[in-house]
UniProtKB/TrEMBL annotation:
UniProt entry tagged with the keyword Transferase: yes
InterPro entries xrefs: Methyltransf_11, SAM-dependent_MTases_sf
A Gene Ontology molecular function term of the record: methyltransferase activity
Annotated protein name in UniProt: Class I SAM-dependent methyltransferase
Record has Protein biosynthesis as a keyword: no
UniProt superkingdom: Bacteria
Gene3D superfamilies assigned: Vaccinia Virus protein VP39
GO biological process: methylation
Length: 312
C-alpha cells in the first residue's frame, strides 16, 4: 500500500516490510533467541492478544520492582527477549501505524529534500527503516541487546543505507534536522537531562518529534517510571531546553518541537491548532493526577493489523 501526500511525494506503507511477513519475523526471532519456531509463534500470538504479556512475565520472574528505576531494570532491558515480541506487536498496532503515517506525511510536507534524522531508542528499527524507505538519511541508536540485533538484521536485509550508532556518546552534536524519540522518555531516570541531549543533537531550527506517554504507569507497563508521571502533558519539560511546540496531533501522539534560541520569535503564537494541543496537554496533566490514564478508552485496545497465522 502506498500513501500519497501530494502529487510529488509518495510514502511507503506504515506497515513497514517485513512487518507484514510473520514467517520472516518468527524465523528471525527464533534465530536471535535460539528458541523453537513453535515457542516464538506462541509468544507472538500471546503478545498480539495482550500487549506486554511476556515482558510482564519475565519482569516478575526476575523479582524486579515495577515503576522504579534500578540497575537491575537497566540490565533487564539488555538481557530479556520480551521486547522483541512487545515491539513487533506495538509496531503493528493501529495506534502506532497511524502515528508513523502522520510523521512520514508531516516530514514530506515540511521539506521535499532528504533530511538527516536520528531515531533515538528505536528498538527494532522499524521507524528508522520507514524513514529510510521514504528517502531520508537516517541514523539508528538503541542500547545493545536483542532488539538492536533484530534491527541490524532488518537493515541488512533491506539493502538500504542506515547508519548505526551503538554508543550514545558517539552521537554527533548539532548534526540532525530531526530527532525522532518515540516511547522512550517515560522509561529514563532523568527526562530533563535526556531532553537536553535531544536538543544538543539538533541543528538550530531542527525539530524533535516526541511521543512520551508518561501517564501509562500500571500493571501492563512495568518499566514506565512512576517518578516521570509529573511530566505528563507538560511542555515546560521541552521549552526549558529551547524546544518549542510547532505542530503535532491533538493527543500528543506525537508532538513536534523546534529548536530555537531565546532571540527567535515564533510566528505560531495565535495558531488555533497549537492552542488546542496545549489545552489537551493541560487535560493530560490534570487527568493523570486524578485517575492516571487520560486516554483509558483508547490505550487498552491492542488491535493488530495482522493475524499471526498468515503472512498478510
Amino acid at each position: 500500500m502506498i500513501f500519497f501526500t501530494d502529487q510529488r511525494v509518495s510514502l511507503p506503507s506504515p506497515l513497514v516490510k517485513p512487518l507484514d511477513d510473520n514467517n520472516w519475523i518468527i524465523n528471525l526471532i527464533a534465530e536471535i533467541t535460539h528458541e523453537s519456531v513453535e515457542t516464538v509463534r506462541h509468544n507472538l500470538e500471546e503478545e498480539e492478544i495482550h500487549l506486554g504479556r511476556k515482558q510482564i512475565r519475565d519482569f516478575h520472574e526476575q523479582g524486579l520492582l515495577p515503576h522504579v528505576w534500578s540497575e537491575e531494570m537497566n540490565e533487564f532491558y539488555k538481557n530479556t527477549d520480551a521486547f522483541l515480541y512487545n515491539l513487533v506487536a506495538w509496531n503493528r498496532n493501529h495506534i502506532k501505524l497511524q502515528m508513523r503515517d502522520w510523521i512520514g506525511k508531516y516530514l514530506s510536507r515540511e521539506k521535499s529534500s532528504p533530511l538527516d534524522i536520528l531515531c533515538l531508542g528505536d528498538g527494532l528499527g522499524i521507524d528508522t527503516l520507514y524513514l529510510a524507505q521514504a528517502g531520508h538519511h537516517v541514523t539508528y541508536y538503541d542500547v545493545p541487546g536483542y532488539t538492536e540485533t533484530f534491527a541490524r538484521r532488518l537493515f541488512k536485509d533491506s539493502g538500504l543505507a542506515v547508519s548505526i550508532v551503538n554508543d550514545i556518546q558517539a552521537i554527533s552534536k548539532e548534526a540532525y534536522d530531526v530527532v525522532l524519540c518515540l516511547d522512550v522518555l517515560e522509561h529514563v531516570s532523568d527526562p530533563p537531562s535526556f531532553v537536553a541531549e535531544i536538543a544538543g543533537y539538533l541543528r538550530f531550527g531542527g525539530k524533535a518529534i516526541i511521543h512520551a506517554p508518561f501517564y501509562l504507569v500500571n500493571e501492563n507497563y512495568l518499566t514506565h517510571l512512576k517518578s516521570n508521571q509529573k511530566y505528563s502533558g507538560r511542555l515546560n519539560l521541552f521549552t526549558k531546553q529551547g524546544l518549542h511546540l510547532v505542530d503535532g496531533q491533538l493527543g500528543w501522539n506525537p508532538i513536534v518541537l523546534r529548536k530555537i534560541d531565546h532571540k527567535t520569535q515564533l510566528t505560531t503564537r495565535w495558531n488555533l491548532h497549537l492552542w488546542s494541543i496545549r489545552l489537551i496537554g493541560l487535560y493530560i496533566a490534570i487527568s493523570t493526577q486524578i485517575w492516571g490514564n487520560p486516554f483509558f478508552w483508547i490505550i487498552p485496545n491492542n488491535r493488530s493489523m495482522l493475524k499471526i497465522g498468515s503472512k498478510k
